[in-house]
Amino acid sequence: MRRLTLAAAALVSASLFTSCVPSAERFDPARLPDPADLSSRNAATEWYYVSGYLPESGLAFHWAQFKVNYRGIPYQAGHLAVADLRTGKFNVYENNSQNARFGFPPLRVEQGDWRLRQDAGSTYQLTAGPLNLTLTALKEPVVHPPGYSGTPEVGRLYYQSITRMDVKGTVALPGGETREARGLVWLDHQWGDQQPGAQAQWDWFGLHLSDGSDLMLYRVRNAAGQVVQVAGSLVDPQGVAREVPNVTMTPGRVYRSPSGREYVLGWQVQAGDLALALDAVRDEQELLTKNTSVAYWEGPVRGTGTLNGQAITAEGMGEFVGGILTREEGGRFFPSGR
């Protein structure tokens, strides 16, 4: 779900492409996508994510593939972060291949030798760096109300998810260990006219609740740090997505990373019959992704609270954008306008 000055990065790779690619399609809030249509779009910004907190395996991971269309010029950027929760080691891999292919149906997202492929029906294969995973959707795709994140001011992104997927497979860890991966993961697909990282930043959660429902929380901030949108949706055990009205996300504990950026890692969430306290499983999860020129925190979170008068626990992933990288950090500074 989320984060980069990729329109800027496209300029660096402009010489790799011809200018005959059609201009990006415009965002239209009156025309929301079919939840089941996960096909790639000709948008200014697009990404696919698969994120998972796997406590049984002692792992957490976040795979992302980004595509940006800058004045008809496509740019691809991918990265993968893997946290070994048993040893505390955290490894980040970046994929700069401009050899990318997309297809639907069935879904196919390929960047170099990193691939997310739909085999048949609800089964998908994710092979990327150390990941060799089979994902089985336990719910159908949804469009999160109101159908997009963001505002006209900061740009908007249509927002689809498969919020609950069973994962099996292996993760190859540094040092030669290959660990079995088991648990639940979350798949996101977003696209639209937003330029994340510079134009918009956010605080996001994708959570699996102990009652079988899934909770998405999204707090969007503008370039000045002002909150311009707070959205939430609850996908019930049957797979129906509904808006969580009047949701609030109150910041709590703050972590200062080695780069000097501050990320809120402790949160209180309130909305009607929902009350949830959330915190990071581990703090050291900052990603300084050079091929997207964005700094953000992405990692496992858990919490406790109540929903409809019943006690619940929550496990999943959080993502909090810390801004763009400086030149000294390896970032690429470009004008933020399109």
UniProtKB/TrEMBL annotation:
Residues 45-193 form the AttH domain. The keyword Signal applies. Residues 1-24 form the signal peptide. Keywords: Signal. InterPro entries: AttH-like_dom_sf (IPR023374), AttH_dom (IPR010791). It holds the Pfam family Lipocalin_9. This is AttH domain-containing protein. It comes from Deinococcus aetherius.
